[in-house]
Amino acid sequence: MKSREQEYRELFMAEALEYYDAMSRHLSELERNPQEVNALNELFRLMHNLKANARAMGFVEMGEVAHKMETLFGQIRGQERSFTGALVGMTFQAVDTLGGMIRAVGSDQQTVDAQALLDNLDLLIKGEEPVQAQTEPTDEQADADAARKLELSDLVSIPVKKLDNLLNLVGELVIDRDRILTLATELGSPALQATARHLFRISDDLQYSVMDVRLVGAGVLLNKFPRVVRDVASAESKQVELTLSGQDVQIDRNVLQLITDALLHIVRNAVSHGIENPADRQAAGKPAVGRLSISALTERDDVLLQVQDDGRGINTEAVRKKAVRQNMLSAEAAAALDEQAVWALLFEPGFSMAEQITDISGRGVGLDVVKLAIDSLGGRLRVNSELGKGTTFTLVLPTSIAVKGSLLVELDERAYAVPLLHTDVVLSLRSDEIFAVGGLLMTRVQDENVPLVPLRQLLYLEGDEPLPRATRADLPAADVQQQVLVVSYNGRRLGLVVDRFLRQQNIVVKQLSKPLDTIDLFGGVTLLGSGQLCLVLDVPALTRLFLAKRP
């Protein structure tokens, strides 16, 4: 398996070779017509980009040659000199040297000695004649040019839409593969079973290979935030030091695309509302400059994006009181909530800690939209805060959204898939393990009272109809056990009563077609090996429905 350094080297090589080809082409254009402004501008841009990339990779000498060439083309653009005389031959020689340096990187050979070239470029920049300037190639050069091969990069650029289409086709293949494997087992044919197992291995490798191609470094997104933080801090008259880490962590490009706005919102609010102004920080015994870090890291099969500030933290009691004032819950219910449950209120639609609406609003505004974006990916949002010390938001995201682990459950002889991300525990409960409180059936799970609701009631609920009140009469008979899947969302647990558990299975989720896509209780559909369509339950939507319809 390639190391990350090797991958970066190959990417640098692919881009640098493209630069080299473009430089040679534009130099020829400029030689034919020294007034060709477009060619001159492109040469300046290419040298600037190569300089930056080479220095970032540690290729110092290559970066120096590109830097001095950039300076010369800048002088030509500024009409301080013209593209004539010794300058023409020297620039061609410099581009050839850069080409040799780039090829040396690719073949792990010793880099080209460019000291003499650098000295001559310095003389040209000062307006002096270079030493032994060559306008015609020598015989250690004509032979080398004759033997030179035209080179093509080993890497190609592929539009994301093509990868999306390829992944969809692989998904169709995986669905049919599972059907063939099921059929082979039912028929009991050893030859067909062997072929089906071979198909299973190949399609598995193909699926993960396509998913791997779609992975990009988190730095593609994280590296855009220094400017964002600078602009927000300037508008708020604050001083903020930003630290980025984990740019190498790999994640599906589509996951990054879908989470961009959510991360932007959290970062802007961390600077605007989380970090205090310099005077308040100093009064609290803190440095005037606030600290903000955005980091990416891996945790098992997930990628974590963390936004951490050393600001004022979340005032838990203020959130509790504001929720009561906004009639989200009673004072008694609010007083019974623990710290994590109070913070979960920040994600409720319409909740805001801001006293007035501004372009950059207070922490809490829009967090319901952030939560919905994360839910759509099958992710989670964690909050940790200490008053006066700071707040950390952690976005828990899947590496890829192509394949999801799921638990298959059965209800009324129909299978449903529940994403493993939201499954907590499966239980088989006796009647003495269930009790009725306030119109709800409850059970005790890890020292916590968890409400129980038949999945059938949630799926078949109509209009504004509330859930029916539960009493002791609704408890199962002593010899009947209830099969319960405990799911969790936004810090809340809910026990879904089902007919039975089937199995755990990786599934390829397809979007529901119109008009079924308007039913928010389902996150999509998949096809089982038996050929049966299986709806994928949307746990966040089911939890929100239960909270809205509870008796």
From TrEMBL:
PROSITE patterns: CHEW, HIS_KIN, HPT
One GO process term, biological-process aspect: chemotaxis
GO cellular component, one term: cytoplasm
Domain Histidine kinase: 151-401
EC id: 2.7.13.3
Function text: Involved in the transmission of sensory signals from the chemoreceptors to the flagellar motors. CheA is autophosphorylated; it can transfer its phosphate group to either CheB or CheY.
Identification of the protein by name: Chemotaxis protein CheA
